[in-house]
Structures are given as structure tokens and as C-alpha cells.
Amino acid sequence: MSRIYLDYNASTPCCAEALDAMLPYFRERYGNASSVHGFGQEAKGAIEESRAKVAAFLNASPGEIVFTSGGTESDNMGVIGAARALAEKGRHVVTSDIEHDAVRQSCDALEREGFTVTRVAPEGNGRVYPDAVAAALRPDTVLVTVIAANNETGVIQPTAEIGALCAARGIAFHVDAVQAAAKYPIDVKAWNTTLVSITAHKFYGPKGAGALYMRRGFRLAPLSHGGEHERGRRAGTENVPAIVGLGRACEVAQEEMKTTAPRLTKLRDRLEAGLMAAIPQIVRHGEGAPRVCNTSHLSFHGAEGEHLILSLDMKGVAVSAGSACKAGSAHPSHVLLAMGVPATVAQSAVRFSLGRFTTDAEIDRVLEIVPPVVEKIRAGSPTFAA
């Protein structure tokens, strides 16, 4: 049985370009970038070359890029590290109700330290509007953190407008751009950001490498200690191969974004239209809001999400309910609940996320597979009324 992968928001395969760039740094170029001899300086040079590539990807300067182990660490540094650094100015943080757990739980941790966190609700279409953020600001607000593109619904947030609001009031602004990267351009200057998080494995780079953009002149409180790596901002021996892979993945993404995004939008729209024509009682989340090109989050009334996901997997189709970090959870999506979606509808949600290797033939096959699977599950549901 051939398998179809439609869970690119969870992770992507490492592209050949990134893998080829990485391989020498696993073998003959294995030096520690902190060493002063030739092996070490070769590794350091590779890191700095990748730093420049990531900076170009974000419209930043190389010195503003801090390499991390991935999106979760970048988010923790950008939220906790920033808030701690600014604590003498104030101890109030504003975030949204639709953040990834890496930000949500970082905010929870700040509350345990004595910070106050205000969580702004989205509108029913999944967007967090600047007026709602403005209403949450206080004289002691030191940080606002908002996701750029939601990992479940794909809804794009008005980061530039929120960033302008923060800049006008001198408030630090962190953006979790993990799901936005490579789907549409990220411009840290146009967005007026202080901090931006990305990770390589969401756009065909390796797992274990991420980056935090930190605006020149801003200093956060480091979360790790034990060395002067990354200019004292993040201690620990750098993962040189993965950093090289991240840099190459950024280059490839910049080269391909203009052609990839329209192709994936067309495939996504065809998938949604086909499913909604063939299956009654479907809810499309994020309706009416701008969404990233590859993501479709649908609820199938009467077909419990986890049951549907497992049934599709048995047919060779890989999809998810939402965040891979919460797979297996019996609780409905906090994102959908925050949008006002009833719990019963939220529990029937499935996320289809397309990618570089998704084909027209695969979409055709999915449109053949999904309707009878949904029908079978609904037929066994005591609560579904056709």
C-alpha cells in the first residue's frame, strides 16, 4: 500500500540540498566551533555563513541571529528570557489564546514567577486583532507575544499591525514564526519585531536546529549557562551540521517560495472543495481569514477526530488533529475552543497540511479515501444525525 503524507506542519523531510550541505560536517569537518585550531575555525566559518543565510531569510543582520535547538527553545528564550530581562520595567505580558504550547507554557512559567499574563481571545475566524491587543496593554506591559501563522488552522495573524502598536509604546514584541517560515515572507523590520522564532524541520531542514532573531541592542536573560557560545546568549556546543542544514534550507525556501505557495494553495483549495462536495456537515476553520498556503483544518460532524486519523492511517493517509506536540490528547483543541467552536465539533477536527512533495494524484487519492471512511465512522456514531 502506498502512503500519502499530509502532515507537513508536524515535520518535513530533509531536502537533498540541506542534507548534502550537512554531510561533510558529520565526517571530515567535525571540529568544535569554539576551538582555535583549523578544524574549529572551519566549523566556526560554517556557522557564520549559515548565520548570514538565516539573516537574509528574515531580513535581519547576521549579528541578530541566535542559533538554538529548535522552535521550542527559541520560543522559551523569546518569552521567558525577554520577560526576565525586562522585569525591572514591568511584569505584565500579553499573549493570545491560540498560541502553540511552547509559548503557552512559557507564559504559564512566567506566572509562577510572579508575572501577570493577559490572554487575548481571537475572533471566530481565528484572528487576533490589534484592537484587542491594544485593549490588553497596561503601563507595566513589557512584552507581547503572538503567533504569526497558527499551527492548527493556518490562520495568518496581523503581525505588522500588532508590531507597530508595540513599537509606538516601546513594548518588546515576540513572534512565533515557526509555521510561517517558508510559506510566506518573514520581514522582521516590516513587522517591527524584537524577537522571532523559527525552526528548520518545518521547511525541509534538519530537526535539532532553530534560530531566534533578536533585534540589535536588545539583551535577554540567558536560559542556559556554561559558556560564551552565541555571544553569551545561549551556552552549549553548537550543532554545526544542523546549523548548516538550517542555513541551506533557508536559501532553498527563498528560491522556491514564489512558485511553491501558489501550487500548494491550488492543491489545498481542490482538496477542500472535493471533500466539502462529497461529505455533508463539514466545518472549515479559519473561514474568511487569510491562511497559509498548505493548511486545511476541517471538522467532520459525528466523526471523532482521533478515530478518523487512525482510520485514515490504516488506509495509508497521514494527517493529524493539530499540533504534533499534543498528539494523543483526549482534550479538544484549545485553539478551536478559543475561537468559539463547540467542543463536540472541535473533537472532530482533522488537519491536512500539504508540502513540497504533495502531488495532484495524491489529492485525487485522498478524495477517494476520506468520504467512505467518514461515512463508516458516522454510521457507528450514536450521536450523529444525518
Distance between the termini: 32 Å
Task: Provide the CATH top-level class of the largest domain.
Answer: Alpha Beta
User: Overall mean pLDDT score?
Assistant: 95
User: Which CATH architecture of the largest domain?
Assistant: 3-Layer(aba) Sandwich
Q: Unreliable stretches, pLDDT < 50, 5 or more residues? A: none
Described by its quaternary structure, the protein is single chain
Gyration radius, in Å: 21 Å
Helix content: 40-55%
CATH fold call of the largest domain: Aspartate Aminotransferase, domain 2
The total beta strand count reads 12
Hey, roughly how much beta strand do the residues contain?
A: 5-15%
Number of domains: 2
Please summarize the sheet with the most strands.
7 strands, mixed
> Which class of secondary structure composition applies to the elements?
alpha/beta
Please count the helical segments. Answer: 12
Please supply descriptive tags for the structure shown above:
single chain, alpha/beta, Aspartate Aminotransferase, domain 1, Aspartate Aminotransferase, domain 2, 2 domains, three-stranded antiparallel sheet, 40% helix, 14% strand
